[in-house]
Amino acid sequence: MKLGIIGLPNAGKTTLMNALTGQELEVTAYPNQAAADPPPGIVKVPDARLDRLSEIYQPRKTTRAEVACSDITGFDRGISGDAAAGLFELLADTDALIHVVRAFEDEAVVHDGPLDPLADAAALDLELIFHDLELVETRLERIEAAQRKGIGGDNEAEKRALERCRQALEREEPLRRVELDEDERAAIGSLRFASLKPVLVVLNVAEDRIGAPETEATVATLADHYAGKGVRVFSLSAAIEMELSQLETGEAEPFLGELGIEEPAVNLVIREAYRLLGLISFFTVGEDEVRAWTTRRGDRAPRAAGRIHSDIERGFIRAEVIGYEDFIAAGSMARARELGTIRLEGKDYVVEDGDIIEFRFTS
Ligand SMILES: Nc1nc2c(ncn2[C@@H]2O[C@H](COP(=O)(O)OP(=O)(O)O)[C@@H](O)[C@H]2O)c(=O)[nH]1
Ligand SMILES: [Mg+2]
């Protein structure tokens, strides 16, 4: 699972990337060039349930769920040619996007024209839309050429889907908005569309504008513009979030208190990204390790077991499962056993977010 951070130059992508991953990549006040292949960072998914389980078990090791994240530098108005192709290549490799939109004023940080978050956001979106339109047109031409030669198969669902996509893109609407049935969706599944990806729009505000009325107003404007499935809009100060991420444990609390917030805003962004990606966490617990694992919503027990090790999926017999809330209510596994809240589940069990699972398997 991988997130990609996009945004116009100087929007605060690298700053947010550092905040999300705890890395210390160079942040510059001038637009910097794209790294050919930027190394992805690892985002650890904050989860209060995991913290609580770790307090109870006092394990030697506590391991969070992880999502990869890349800072995709170089998107700008009117990009084209090889540079654009390279960027879309990187983008195609992600499952969801974080689109950073600048709202902070700073004379020292270059911005193209007056600050206008909605115009900036729409300008980058337009680049994705143009890219997708080109994909659609190329594909349609190929299908038609093949049909003229009599070598095309039955492409009706694909052609129908592509025509609908073309119409939307020509209206400058992202493909996220296009309603397609299952056949149509499958037919275009191999095309690497950019505007189809779920997006978290992050409005990057000045530190003294966190939660301010004008911030809320801009968030509302953006939310209105992006209304529909697969988009969420947030505001935060990337600079503050980066500082928070670099503090030692214990140092952050007074700082958060001053800002009047309970936890860093990036935590919310990460959890929302996780949800947008259709991911859930299940836990394994023990004295050695308390760990959160990632699986897709709707996965059955053997598939979830495979996230830990393919041997467990292959030799799956059954799963002993207790929901997080039931476990906390019982206080311990022994008590949960007495209460009968630990369930034995078979291979058809659909794993739920927060399940604590022990897999039984033959090796
Ligand atoms: N005042 C302020 N400056 C910021 C904030 N976020 C980023 N910057 C500054 O904006 C410049 C560009 O940030 P950077 O993260 O490198 O942007 P990128 O080009 O999108 O990667 C740097 O000088 C940052 O210090 C913010 O929330 N507030
Ligand atoms: Mg950068």
Fold and architecture overview:
With 363 residues, this protein is α/β, with parallel strands linked by helices. It has three domains: 2-48 and 63-116 and 195-276, 3-Layer(aba) Sandwich (Rossmann fold); 132-187, no CATH class; 298-361, Ubiquitin-like (UB roll). The protein is 42% helix and 19% strand. It is built from 14 helices and twelve strands. The strands form three sheets. It has a six-stranded mixed β-sheet, sandwiched between helices. A three-stranded mixed β-sheet has the order 3-9-8, sandwiched between helices. Strand 8 and strand 9 (289-296) form a beta hairpin. The longest helix has 32 residues, at 117-148. The protein is flat. Guanosine-5'-diphosphate (GDP) binds at residues 7, 9-15, 27-29, 31, 104, 106, 109, 204, 206, 237-239.
Compact overview of the structure:
The protein is an alpha/beta fold and 363 residues long. The protein contains 14 helices and twelve strands.
Furnish the topology, listing elements before pairings.
Blueprint: E1 2-7, H1 13-21, E2 41-44, H2 48-57, E3 61-63, E4 66-71, H3 81-92, E5 96-102, H4 117-148, H5 156-170, H6 182-187, E6 199-204, H7 213-225, E7 231-236, H8 238-245, H9 252-259, H10 265-276, E8 279-284, E9 289-296, H11 301-308, H12 310-314, E10 316-323, H13 324-330, H14 333-339, E11 343-345, E12 355-361
Parallel strand pairs: 1-4, 1-5, 3-9, 5-6, 6-7
Antiparallel strand pairs: 2-4, 8-9, 10-11, 10-12
